[in-house]
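INFO  loader      accepted 1 record
INFO  loader      residues=897
INFO  predictor   begin
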Amino acid sequence: MSFDTAPPLFRKVLVWARRLWPERFYFQVPLFSGALIAVTLIGHTWYVAHTHARLAESNLLKEVQILAVNIARVANHFSSGGERKEIERLLAHVVDFPGLLDARITDAGGRLLAFAAADTPGAFPSSDAGAPPSVARGVFEDKGTYWVRWQPIGDEQLRGWLRLRYCNEPITALQGEIVANSALEGVLATVISIVLLTAWLRRRMASVNAAARFAGNLDRAEGAQIELDRGAMEFEQLGRALNKVSRRLFDTHKALRDQQFALDQHAIVSVADVTGRITYANDKFCEISQYSREELLGQNHRIVKSNEHSPAYFREMWRTIARGRVWQGEFKNRKKDGSFYWVTTTIVPSLDERGKPSHYISIRTDVTRSITVEKELRRIKQTLDRTMDCVFMFDPDSLLFFYVNRGAVEQVGYSAEELMTMTPLDLKPEYDRARFDALIAPLKSGAKEVAKLETVHRHRSGRLIPVEIHLQLVAPAGDAPRFVAVVRDISERKAAERERQRLQRQLQQSQKLEVIGQFTAGIAHDFNNILASILGYTELARTRYGSELDNKLLGYLDQVHTAGERARDLIGQLLSFSRGRVGDAAAVELGPRVTEVLSLLDSALPATVRVEVECSEELPAVNIDPVQFQQLLTNLCINARDAMKGTGTLYLALSRRTVVQRCECASCHADARGEWVELLVRDEGEGMDPQVLARAFDPFFTTKEVGKGTGLGLSVVHGIAHDYGGHVLVESTLGQGTVFRVLFPVGGDVQAQRAAETPLVLTRGGGQHIVVLDDDGAAGACLGEMLELQGYRVTVCTTVRAALRWLSLPEHRVDALITDQTMPNITGVEVARKAWRLRPALPVILCTGYGDGTLVELAERTGIAACFTKPVDMPALLRRLAILLENPGPAGQCAAR
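INFO  predictor   done
INFO  writer      dumping tokens
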């Protein structure tokens, strides 16, 4: 049952009880104790009264029962003797029993036999039935104000009934007397208890009041201790507890003060109400904002607003803290002088009992320097990311990368996240941990400040990248040391170095060839003059006196001529290295030329050398001098024969080849990519090691025995191939033979060239006068005689003066001038110029022991009709001379060329 549903009277009692109930514990305890004692005594009194009443009642009932039994026995005796008077006399004595109202005896049928009543009010004859409601013995009836006792008369046979009616007022009076006495005792005990309890409480409440005052001042107690009341264990425990709380509060307050002091020394602390007005600001806030505390208190935080942040930024902040949640962020604030500073801010709402913010505590940290450093670091990082170099930073112990710039990511192909799980060993296939530790050991020990090395990095794709690394151990103040590696991709530099080395080798090769060319040019002139005499006079002897000589002598002349031709071929090989020694190029089908060369070499190749030839069909032509190609292939075949020592298989093949990937020429080291006609010559010889292969194209370098090779064979191959724009590739392994691949550029149309060729008709001279100038008298005389045999008149001069004197005489008819190029103190071109001063239209033919492209061009620019190399090809000379004499003037000179 609640207060609202209780009966009105009960509610009124409770209301008055609340009003009358004292507020002080000092009065509440005695009042409550007195009430408790009173209730206890009242209960005890009722119990005692009830107990005594019941005991008196029980005794009375027993006495009445005994009286009833005795009367019934006497009445049974008198009844059996018919003595009715005695029964009445008996009843008259019985009613004197205290409290007995009346007594009656009836027979078994209920007829009244005797009746006697006490002289007390309420005793009157009863008209009740003469028998009890039950036939049971000792029937007792409680009629409220009196009691009735029925007792049967007769031992074995019921003769009648005895009814005794007596009053219970003595019992009630006794009970009332007991209650009154007990109540008096209870009141007296209650008063005495309240007095004693009040006196005791006065002393105890002094301790309680002291404890209350002490507890009320605990926030200012500063660890003070209350005096213990040892009169009661509870009060002593209360004092100990208060002392313990005081000590804890003191420690807590001290810790909070220390924390606040430390916080104030480090952080900017302020407190604001729910509207944002500042109610507290510590010294740090005043110091950094340059405002005094008085200027800050009561002001809104907008006083330091810098307008750096958007309104949405502040709305989000207020929305967060207004919901009672902590907000964290950064602010750019303005000082009093207008300068700015950055702070990281944590705003903590303080909630009231309703869970609503009552004020806000702001804790800020000055991060201006950190922001500046962070911006600088971002700028440095952006700069490092833009630099062409790669930057790796890694831990000295674990070697794990912890920073890489964008260049490093792009160089090795891994993401920055992947590189954070890798070490330099994962990028450097040349290094294991022991070798890398040896590399960085001098840096760790301080023996070296910077280590510079060149190595390779492995790209994620497996590609190797040549790099140059500057490695340094950096130990910033207050920070752990770290390795900083600045890595530069030197692929282009390495390629440039390789190209430089290739060009240097090519230059060295060119310089060698130039030296040999100069040497060859020095000896070729004199040697060719000698050969011209030998071959010329031999031809003259066979032509003029062949019919007069016996066969044996003719055989001797043939041997001399053959030796001269061999000497001429040797000089031709030497001249292949001199400047401009390129024959006239024409579109040539190489297949038939290979067959021709092999037929010429049939006697030079022993039967133990088996030759295999494979030529692809429909090969394009090659622009080359056929004689030069014959010389090139002859040299390769002779070299193969010598490498196989006369036994094995010589394999030749012609095919069209397209070189796509970079392929370096073995002699000039240039890139050989392009479209080519390939001549392949493969032998089964011993092969060449790398050292021999590197010098194979050097002039006069040979591995053959003395007298079995000049060392010019491959040099000639090199010269001829490159003179016509080709390259030479070589593959050789010791014990497995050698393969030469000569690449020729694809040439012109052979059919068109054949259609353009016009056969020359040789004609004999008709007595025309030819002046021959040569400082070598034998060579000049030989040439003169051969011209005379062809029907020309010839004047041979051995000095320039004699020739010019002859030309200066008008009476001398001169149709052409054939002059040597190299003479003491003058050249053939200079002689031609002087001759043209005397005879402007005179055709001039130049002969030289060493002809190059430069001389031919100079001769053509000068106006010389033709240029021949000694020993002179007489049929060609006669054809040119016939053209010049048949068509005098510029047209004939052009036709002769």
